[in-house]
């Protein structure tokens, strides 16, 4: 069990990945973004998750450089993730997209590079490019995002290297039990995006009750649930007090009964697109 914000999970290739991080989806380039990333690192976050399509890799890179200096940290102490966008999928275009992301971030390498969505007819070639980058030592770990079990099965038919991570929509209304069972059996680490269902669970009665019981916020209850399920989580926030609050989940534990009550909220309900049916 992870006991503090710097604790890590061990990926199947031996790389240590922080169990908690900051996501920056829908945070535009600018001072708010830079300050959010810097606040998170100053508070103790060591994982920052961005993507080419977010259009904010430059600001994330600037924030990282400033935060390293201000907090007297080395680059190796941070875990930085980005993702190849759908329009860039394919072998050569993925290799080029990786260089573009590095250039915008101002980094020599990434800790984790993901295929953002399973684009039919392209994701295998894209994966081959990620394997090339990995084998060349250009990235510490490679993985996928938004892959269902059948996408993973299809990928594994030809893959030389098994994905280390699958980042998917995961929250109490979408608890992804079958996918969790499959990825666990395969040694693929599950990571949650939209862990708070974009604020859609804040007034849920069960969660409000559990929050009162533990003297915590609903947000903290949900993120603790992620943690106890062994799911890496990357909630987004731009406000320093929220960034601190989100990560203050290591001083209490949900009981088996608490966990079961939250598990029972599952409705297989998404707030994002279904990986079997997206048009971008």
From TrEMBL:
Signal sequence interval, chain numbering: none
Catalytic site positions: 54 (proton donor)
Record-annotated NADP-dependent oxidoreductase domain positions: 30-267
Keywords: NADP, Oxidoreductase
Site (Lowers pKa of active site Tyr): 83
Entries under InterPro entries matching the protein: AKR (IPR020471), AKR5G (IPR044500), Aldo/ket_reductase_CS (IPR018170), NAD(P)_OxRdtase_dom_sf (IPR036812), NADP_OxRdtase_dom (IPR023210)
Domain of life of the native organism: Bacteria
Tagged with keyword Cytoplasm: no
Annotated GO MF terms: oxidoreductase activity, acting on the CH-OH group of donors, NAD or NADP as acceptor
Keyword Hydrolase listed: no
Pfam hit, one: Aldo_ket_red
Binding site for substrate: 116
Family: Belongs to the aldo/keto reductase family.
Name this protein carries in UniProt: Aldo/keto reductase
Organism: Paenibacillus rhizovicinus
């Amino acid at each position: 069990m992870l006991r503090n914000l710097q604790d890590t999970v061990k990926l199947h290739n031996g790389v240590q990945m922080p169990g908690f991080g900051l996501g920056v989806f829908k945070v535009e380039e600018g001072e708010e973004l830079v300050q959010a990333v810097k606040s998170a690192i100053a508070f103790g976050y060591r994982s920052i998750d961005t993507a080419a399509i977010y259009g904010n890799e430059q600001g994330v890179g600037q924030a990282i450089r400033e935060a390293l200096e201000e907090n007297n940290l080395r680059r190796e102490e941070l875990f930085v993730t980005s993702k190849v966008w759908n329009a860039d999928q394919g072998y050569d275009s993925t290799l080029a997209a990786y260089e573009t992301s590095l250039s915008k971030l101002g980094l020599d390498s990434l800790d984790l590079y993901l295929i953002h969505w399973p684009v039919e007819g392209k994701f295998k070639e894209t994966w081959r490019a990620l394997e090339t980058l990995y084998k060349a030592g250009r990235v510490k770990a490679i993985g996928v995002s938004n892959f269902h079990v059948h996408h993973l099965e299809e990928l594994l038919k030809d893959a030389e290297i098994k994905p280390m991570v699958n980042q998917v929509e995961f929250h109490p209304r979408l608890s992804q039990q079958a996918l969790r069972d499959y990825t666990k059996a395969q040694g693929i680490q599950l990571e949650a995006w939209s862990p708070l269902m974009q604020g859609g669970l804040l007034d849920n009665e069960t969660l409000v009750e559990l929050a009162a019981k533990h003297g915590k916020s609903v947000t903290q209850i949900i993120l603790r649930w992620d943690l106890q399920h062994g799911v890496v989580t990357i909630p987004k926030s731009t406000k320093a007090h929220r960034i601190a609050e989100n990560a203050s989940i290591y001083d209490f534990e949900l009981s088996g009964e608490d966990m079961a009550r939250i598990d029972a909220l599952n409705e297989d309900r998404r707030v994002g697109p279904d990986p079997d049916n997206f048009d971008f």
